[in-house]
Amino acid sequence: MSRLATGVWVGAYMTRLGLENIPAYVVQKGDATAGAVWVKVARLDGTAELWERQYDLMADRRDWVRTMQEPEFEIDARIARETGRDRDLWVIELESRDGRCLLDDPSLA
Predict the structure, then answer these.
(1) 106 — pLDDT class (breaks 50, 70, 90)
(2) Which end of the chain is more exposed for a tag (fewer CB within 10 A), N or C?
(3) d(CA 95, CA 40)
(4) What one-character DSSP code corresponds to residue 106?
């Protein structure tokens, strides 16, 4: 199964967020063809969520999983550590009081 280039997926995701009036920013641009993507959802109350795609062996697919729900500064620290090690990593930050990030939308799979 061929995979969509990361840069193309990020562009499509940013467009979908814009259509839903969810403010979003690419804060770290990674490898355009195969970089991993992390999505930080700032809840605007001092907390945030961090979403990553993980491979589900049982289902044989990659799903978006919320890996952290912590004070925003802790998520920022984790992102800083990881981007220091992995220059191919993309980081998208969006602002959503209710945590809406559209990652459960099948069109973004």
Answers:
(1) confident
(2) N
(3) 9
(4) G
CA distances in angstroms from 49 to 2, 8, 46, 69, 78, listed in the order given: 29, 23, 11, 4, 12
DSSP E strand stretches across 18-75? 24-28, 37-42, 47-56, 61-71
- Residue 73 main-chain phi, psi, to 5 deg: -65, -30
- The continuous run of DSSP H or E covering 77 comes out as helix 72-85
**Amino acid code (one letter) for 62:** R
CB proximity list for 31: less than 8 A, separation 6 or greater: 6, 87, 88
pTM to 2 decimal places: 0.91
Residue 27: which of 45, 48, 3 has the closest Cα?
48
**Residue type, position 57, single letter:** L
